[in-house]
Design brief:
about 110 residues; alpha/beta; globular; 4 helices; 5 strands; two-stranded antiparallel sheet; single chain
Length: about 110
């Protein structure tokens, strides 16, 4: 059986510039409740995590959002370049901008 591509899970657990609050708690909840084990298999032995930590001082919603988009785009771009599947876990829909920027203009889908 062919091996599946490695998954790079990009964690951006923020909602409105706040880490782990409200919807931003979702990524950690998924990870703490078995997501890594569900993704890892004999066909997909490689799984990596990138936990993003924006450096915005003082923390501000708009500045944090732009920094997260930059960091997400960087991780997604690296994952694609290394033939990995980028799985972005986030608590804010604005992060879709970073995901799209990292993927480029080709055929893409975001759920």
């Amino acid at each position: 059986m062919a091996e599946h591509p490695a998954v790079r899970t990009v964690c951006a657990p923020y909602d409105s510039g706040h880490r782990g609050l409200r919807m931003g708690a979702g990524p950690d909840h998924l990870i703490d409740n078995g997501l890594p084990e569900m993704l890892r298999s004999a066909q997909r032995p490689s799984l990596s995590f990138a936990d993003l930590l924006p450096k915005v001082d003082p923390p501000a919603e708009v500045a944090t959002t732009f920094e997260l988009d930059r960091l997400v785009a960087e991780q997604v771009r690296e994952a694609v370049a290394e033939s990995e599947f980028p799985l972005v876990l986030t608590g804010n829909c604005n992060t879709a901008v970073g995901t799209i920027a990292g993927l480029g203009a080709g055929d893409l889908g975001i759920v």
